[in-house]
Amino acid sequence: MVALAVVLCAVVLLLAVLVAGLLRSHADILKALHDLGAGVGDPATPTAVSGRSPSRGTEVPPPLLMGPPLPEERDATTAPAVAGMTPNGDAVGVAPATGGGLTLLAFLSSGCGTCGGFWSAFRQPDRWGFPEETRLVVVTKGPEYEVPRAVAELAAPGLTVVMSSEAWSDYEVPGSPFFVLVDGRSGRRIGEGVANHLSQVAELVRRAVLDARSSLSSSRGRASAEGLDGPARERANDQELLRAGVLPGDPSLYPRTFDDLYGPDGPTAAPRPPAAGAV
Amino acid sequence: MATISAHGIQASLPQGFEGRIFVRPRTGAELTYPVAQFATFALPSAVGDFGSGAVTLMGSSDVFVTLFEYGPESLGTRLFARQGMPRDLAPADFRPTVLRRGIPGQSGTQWFFTEGGRPFTLYVVLGSHALRASLVPRVNGLLRAVALDAVTAPAAGAEAGSPVAATSLPARWN
Predict the structure, then answer these.
(1) Do B42 and A160 touch (CB under 8 A)?
(2) Does B3 touch chain A (CB under 8 A)?
(3) pTM, 2 dp
(4) Given CA atoms B75, B76, B78, B82 in this order, what sign does their dihedral have?
(5) ipTM score of complex
């Protein structure tokens, strides 16, 4: 009888170990699927958009897409520097992720038929229809793939043209013509895709700028979103404070302790809605 | 780190820097020599050799650097006696009065030197003189990443094989 009980206990123990192992294995598989973005797991858990690296350590929305869908595994957020030669044999390096303005990278080639329309359109800046702060940079493949003289003949005088195959690789350009809009303030791409006409590109720029400003406005206030400075920034801040019911002399404008700023739970408590003055 | 190279000048651009190295087209009998420009802001397509058209766009945390080469006739002159480009500037080297175009708040520095048998001037503008302590290290980071090729056939008056980074003479202000 005792022997039977011992055997049963051993069997139960063995089964328990097997079940625990299976559960552990199952959990590992679920975790791996979740990391791959297969939609398994708690959807409320924050995770990077599949295959798209978050920029600057925070999750960022994917750029506005123009034209046919692009492979999801592309890194569609970062905006590395573009460096190479000009068609005249000079050197140029552009850092679109810095400087605060917008940079539209137009990946063109000298041979593609659709690109010809863009080369011609870029000779008439007054018809581009881009926001004023937009800088246009044309990127062709390097001299190993393009004939510099042919590119020079197509490029409008004064147009910044960088011949760099590395940039095509960095931005994972699927083909020409391809456009990437980079916001220097956030340091990331806010729009990209394929277009056949300049009007499509202008629309992309316009929509991406509106989206970016809307996003900034909701999180950082109008003054920051619109890049206001000086007296204009002060006026915008005052208007937001007034709309929030914060009048001159309001006690919230004069915090004297950390509790006034963060509440009794301290700065590590759950996120609070932004104060009206945080603009 | 992006690297640009042309006309015997190479630069590995530190994070946030843009740059261009070019030679302006000749006009008539005029001779033109390489110019390198670097900035922490978007450089417009048309910028004067010493930053006209660009320095007015600078923010307080921006820097603008230009490296301008002169013709071989300048070799051996006292103005270019310093050997080697300065690559370790100090905040005290910057003065608001050195700006080619006086813009309130900004400051600059300018050095004439010879390196590799080539006469140059280095002109640097800070967006804010008040922030020079934090901006000058960024400038030095760039300058240390700039390399100048020596001329293959030394021109008259140039010392063949002169040390690239030697600083045998004290610095001179423009």
Answers:
(1) no
(2) yes
(3) 0.68
(4) positive
(5) 0.82
